[in-house]
Write a structure and sequence with these properties.
Strand content: 15-25%
Radius of gyration: 31 Å
Structural class: alpha/beta
Distance between the termini: 74 Å
Number of domains: 4
Number of strands: 23
Length: 713
């Protein structure tokens, strides 16, 4: 059961030339003629892909034919064979749209086509080069200054299997007489297209500085910085796809974790990796990293600053030592006709002795039972000098009444229940004595009494999970599964389905090979601790911009990051071009932010629209009709999406303005990482006062075409 290679993976540039598949360029060709030429090539690639898919289906069916195999070796071979065929089919299907997107013409007349995956023809000659292969690097890195022997770079835009548009960049002016040049450049065309509410991959328009960050080594830590709109997020996602391509065994087996600031953000980026053919990375927002909790509520900034700080560590340690609510306050036992009891003070002393030996309560029940028996024995011994301690322990310790008391006095504790204890002001005050002022205690306790946990609570829950102690769960290694009718005793298929994000890689999985953190400037120290547990031996990609930070104590967060990220080589990349905002929008945002932010990185906006930022001031009583009018104007002016970014306190009244599928109302914190064609920023001064100027700066840099600022007087 062997399969010949049919894809182009890690070839060197000198080994790849697809000139055999395309006609000689004619400089007098019209755009329509050039599209026809590219269409013929695209048709040829899809014909070959259809053959490869049919072959993969045949291999899969051949594996199914061995469904009754009973010998373990044959079962293993069957599973691996079916798995590989299924993966190949999935790869071909997931990257079917826009499969061919690039072409390079070289000074020597050679031609190289670049696409979402590598494809060879029936003679195993290269038809299409995978965008992640070294041979594709000149498509992203060649410039007029460093051409890398590239004369012309062409971007091919398709819908389905039909070529709709081509756009060329001529890098060698001397080739103008031999190569037709179509369009005004692919990047500008891509930037001007409407937004759809989902982030798109930029595989066809990756720029040189972005490509360098994408292809950085996977081990150690890679730091990607840059101002708004520089593509940090999408670069990080393409980096995940690149790492999986470079060392699939390592990164697919152990996993890649991608963490973003909010559920809205994760939904926005959710289709980028699948569009690149990668389904195995685990994507979690900060509010989802505790299994069973999906937090979306944001605490008020002052409360978030307390919950996120390392000041919570001693408070949580004290909290887990408190007597659980409902625990009995007296133990009464009859032994040899005498009644012996332990009162609340004596039980409290016994509890303290337990924690001297085992600080994690969920691992200390045996020690708790021993402490109770010791305390009782000290009362029994003076009354019954002839009693034997071993016999006393066996007799009393095995009684149902004693075991029932032990279960109630020392129950197994769940982090969600323990954190909820802190919603009781008296309990939190006891745990926080000497660490928090009364006003902070009251505010945190009030937050913990809310019906749902906040995003900031998730890191506290994860910390409590360790402080309480994690009981090892028995693993069933003899499971036999069924997948599409094939019984298997697991190997490769287990790795994909069992170790994938659907099952074993739940929010508590801690053995990732690589961790990607977006909007890292906002992470609190407690959140860094939570992430550090998931990537203790991982490589890291950390993406952020300090000027956009909402965390009030950057040094504390930086120290926590250094402790969370394993030491190793640091690769640093700084992105300098703003591809999101028009020059008009970004100049306005920069002018507002520069005097208010101490450290600000101002990238260069690469395009102009001629549309200036609109400013209005309205009274609170006419805010809703004013917003409704601004939304209507924006919908008429742009083809894509419109975002209303407003303080959370105004969402109730402004919800009525959202009457179109293209319109979204979000809070300032949820706007991080997102973009819309038109943005209506409401009460910017209120946002800055509540969340800081860094967050207000974020709000001003979300629009790709039009920005309206509406202040409330």
């Amino acid at each position: 059961m062997s399969q010949k290679p049919d894809s182009v993976d890690a070839q060197h540039p000198q080994d790849v030339d697809t000139s055999h598949a395309v006609p000689t360029p004619n400089p007098s060709n019209t755009p329509e003629q050039e599209i026809t030429i590219e269409q013929a090539f695209v048709d040829r690639v899809y014909e070959r892909v259809d053959v490869l898919r049919a072959d993969a289906e045949g291999h899969r069916d051949a594996g199914f034919a061995h469904r009754d195999a009973t010998v373990p070796g044959a079962q293993f071979e069957r599973d691996v064979f079916v798995y590989r065929a299924a993966r190949r089919i999935a790869d071909l299907d997931s990257q079917h749209e826009g499969l061919v997107f690039g072409r390079l013409d070289f000074d020597n007349g050679g031609v190289r086509h670049v696409g979402r995956l590598g494809v060879r023809d029936a003679e195993y000659r290269t038809l299409l080069v995978d965008w992640r292969a070294p041979a594709a690097a000149p498509f992203y890195r060649a410039t007029a200054v460093d051409r890398q022997d590239v004369a012309r770079r062409r971007v091919i835009r398709s819908f389905g299997r039909k070529v709709e548009e081509i756009s060329d960049d001529l890098l060698n002016e001397e080739a103008a007489d031999s190569l037709p040049v179509i369009g005004d450049g692919a990047l500008m065309a891509a930037l001007g297209r409407k937004r759809t509410g989902r982030m798109r991959d930029i595989v066809a328009t990756i720029q040189s500085e972005q490509d360098a960050a994408i292809r950085a080594p996977g081990r150690g830590a890679t730091l990607i910085t840059g101002g708004p709109g520089t593509g940090k997020t999408v670069v990080a996602l393409h980096r995940a796809a690149f790492l999986l391509y470079q060392d699939r065994n390592r990164y697919e087996a152990a996993g890649i974790l991608v963490v973003g600031p909010s559920a809205v953000f994760m939904k926005y980026i959710g289709r980028v990796l699948p569009s690149l053919g990668e389904e195995t990375a685990a994507l979690y927002s900060l509010g989802e990293l505790y299994a069973g909790v999906e937090a979306t509520r944001q605490d008020r900034p002052k409360v978030a600053a307390v919950k996120g700080g390392t000041v919570m560590l001693p408070i949580l340690r004290r909290l887990v030592r408190q007597t659980p609510p409902g625990a009995p306050s007296e133990l009464r036992i009859t032994y040899r006709g005498e009644v012996f009891s332990l009162d609340a003070a004596e039980l409290g002393a016994a509890r303290a002795r337990v924690f001297e030996k085992e600080q994690r309560p969920n691992l200390a029940k045996t020690e708790a039972g021993r402490a109770l028996l010791v305390a009782l024995w000290r009362k029994v011994k003076p009354v019954m000098p002839d009693a034997e301690p071993a016999k006393f322990s066996r007799d009393v310790g095995s009684r149902n009444e004693f075991l029932t008391f032990l279960d109630r006095w020392w129950p197994d504790l769940d982090p969600t229940a323990v954190l909820a204890w802190a919603g009781e002001t008296r309990r939190l005050a006891s745990a926080a004595e000497g660490h928090l002022k009364r006003a902070s205690i009251d505010a945190v306790a009030a937050s913990l009494r809310e019906a749902e946990f906040s995003v900031q609570d998730v890191a506290l829950l994860d910390e409590l999970r360790l402080l309480l102690g994690i009981k090892p769960e028995p693993r069933d290694r003899g499971r036999i599964r069924s997948w599409s009718g094939v019984e298997e005793v697991s190997t490769a298929q287990d790795r994909y389905y069992d170790r994938g994000e659907r099952q074993a890689r739940d929010a508590f999985y801690e053995d990732y090979a690589h961790v990607i953190v977006d909007e890292a400037q906002d992470l609190s120290p407690m959140q860094w601790r939570m992430l550090g547990r998931r990537g203790g031996a991982a490589g890291w990609t950390i993406v952020g911009d300090e000027a956009q930070s909402s965390w009030p104590r950057p040094k504390e967060s930086a120290d926590a990051r250094r402790r969370a990220v394993p030491r190793g080589r640091l690769h640093e990349f700084h992105l300098t071009k703003n591809y999101r905002n028009s020059k008009e929008v970004f100049d306005y945002a920069a002018e507002w932010a520069t005097p208010r932010l101490k450290s600000i990185d101002l990238p260069e906006a690469v395009r102009e629209t001629g549309v200036d930022v609109e400013e209005r001031s309205v009274t609170a009583d006419v805010l809703l009709p004013e917003i409704a009018g601004a939304v209507a104007e924006a919908l008429d002016a742009v083809e894509g999406t419109v975002g209303i970014i407003a303080p959370y306190t105004r969402h109730g009244e402004l919800a009525a303005a959202v009457h179109d599928d293209r319109v979204t109302l979000v809070g300032p914190l949820e706007s991080k990482g997102l973009e819309w064609d038109a943005v209506i920023a409401v009460d910017l001064d209120g946002i800055a006062a509540e969340h800081g100027p860094g967050v207000a700066y974020v709000v001003l840099t979300r629009a790709t075409q039009r920005l309206a600022r509406i202040d409330v007087t």
